[in-house]
Amino acid sequence: MSDPQTLTLLGSTGSIGNSTLEVLRLHPERYRVFALCAHRQWERLLLQCREFRPDYAVLGSAEDAGHLQAALRESGIKTEVLHGAEALCQVAAASEVDTVMAAIVGAAGLAPALAAVRAGKKILLANKEALVMTGALFMQTVVRHGATLLPVDSEHNAIFQSLPAGFKPGLAHTGVRRLLLTASGGPFRNRAAAMESVTPEEACAHPNWAMGRKISVDSASMMNKGLELIEAHWLFGVPGERIQVVVHPQSVIHSLVEYVDGSVLAQLGNPDMRTPIAHALAYPERIAAGVAPLDLFQIARLDFQAPDVERFPCLKLAYAALAAGGTAPAVLNAANEIAVDAFLARRLSFPGIAWLVSAVLDALPVIPAETLEVVRAADAEARIRAGELLQKFFESGC
Ligand code: MG
Questions:
Q1: What was the pLDDT predicted at 385?
Q2: Domain limits of the chain?
Q3: Does the pLDDT at position 66 exceed 90?
Q4: Cis amide leading into 284 (omega within 30)
Q5: Distance 342 CA to ligand 1 centre (A)
Q6: What is the CATH number of domain 325-398?
Q7: Pairing of strands 122-125, 99-102
């Protein structure tokens, strides 16, 4: 048996983080945890540290880090607790680390994911925003530093599995006509009642996948599929017009690749993130994920529909932002984050999400996304503009 792979887990207390630890638990001889990182949930992180005994634990604030360090000392555990954005980059790029699971949600996950890329690590990418915001730069950095990028997002992992063996993300490939990105359609696919009345509770109740609140709302608005479209474009080097979204309510086919000879290859499985996580962890080998075998007789049928972009305008906005290029996808993403927060806080209606994103995209110019600074500035500007538009909207009493 070779040495265990050493792992840093960015976002260990989130949905992907927990699923990753469930897979690791099945293979203690294969993996050693170097660092576990969470934003605020120090008590949960304490439980994880007790079980996995990492060298480092990282939290967002000094105060939470202090709580965790004290509790760990009391338990006689030697894990060193760090805090802040710089510490995340440090544990992602540390020389002891082979593999980094990049599962911090949102723009906050970008810097540590890039730090891991620059250090030439194997990166299991679950964070969408790194590619949505800075796709061109991110992929260039992967190539320049010889990093290995393996997609964990279930659709992209399925496409990766359906591409020719040895395919390297971002490299040109032949024989692929289209990528078919499947979408469950979310909880409102067949909703009869007006979308204006959608509540955060309804938006977060996804029919097939158990996920965090932000991604659940994105899934309900289909912005998640829009972000995944942009992600797929950068990962696989396929233009937007050759990426077709396919609504597939059963979430059994996780995406497909159509070839010029008429072949269509798909990856199927139960909707459980432990499958793509285990695939990326062990690639090119296969390991058990703890997922039940797919029962085709019980599934019995698979359905497909074209997406309804009038009902789900966020998808149309994402295609437009990808076509516009430059900073447009970063603006789309930032405006969406503000809109989803406002929706979850019951300050904005569900259709208001697409309205706000569209208004911010219209208000800001598209600039070539040549440096990280330009992208960060566009992200900040979009958040400010979204806040102003929301404020104006409330004041107008609509
Ligand atoms: Mg996905």
A1: 98
A2: 5-151, 153-271+308-313, 325-398
A3: yes
A4: yes
A5: 23
A6: 1.10.1740.10
A7: parallel
Residue 68 has pLDDT above 80, yes or no: yes
Percent of the chain scoring above 70 in pLDDT: 96
Query: Ligand 1: distance of its center to the CA of 378 in Å?
Result: 25
Closest CA to 369 of 108, 173, 110, 86: 110
CA–CA distance, 199 with 195 (Å, rounded to integer): 9
Q: How crowded is residue 192: how many other Cβ atoms within 10 Å of its Cβ?
A: 5
The DSSP result for 250-289, as a single string, is T--EEEEEEETTS-EEEEE--S-THHHHHHHHHTTS----
Q: How far apart are the first and last CA of the chain?
A: 65
What is the assigned CATH class of domain 5-151? alpha beta
Going from the Cα of 36 to the center of ligand 1, the distance in angstroms, rounded, reads: 23
Q: How confident is the model at residue 116 (pLDDT cuts 50, 70, 90)?
A: very high
Taking the centre of ligand 1 as the mean of its atom positions, its distance from the CA of residue 223, in whole angstroms, is 11
Using CB atoms within 10 A of its CB, is residue 356 exposed (0-12), middle (13-18) or buried (19+)?
A: buried
| Angle, CA 230 vertex, CA 226 and CA 231 arms, to 5° | 110
Q: Are strands 253-259 and 176-183 parallel, antiparallel or unpaired?
A: antiparallel
Distance 164 CA to ligand 1 centre (A): 21
Predicted local distance difference test score (pLDDT) of residue 251: 94
* Separation of alpha carbons 392 and 395, rounded Å: 5
| CA–CA gap between residue 163 and residue 185 (Å, rounded) | 24
Indicate whether 138 pLDDT > 60: yes
H helix runs in 106-260, sequence order:
110-118, 129-144, 154-162, 200-204, 213-221, 223-236
C-alpha 154 – ligand 1 centre gap (Å):
5
**CB crowding 50-82: b at 16 or more within 10 Å, else e:** eebebbbbbbbeeebbebbbebbeeeeeebebb
Going by the DSSP 8-state scheme, the letter that residue 12 receives in this structure is T
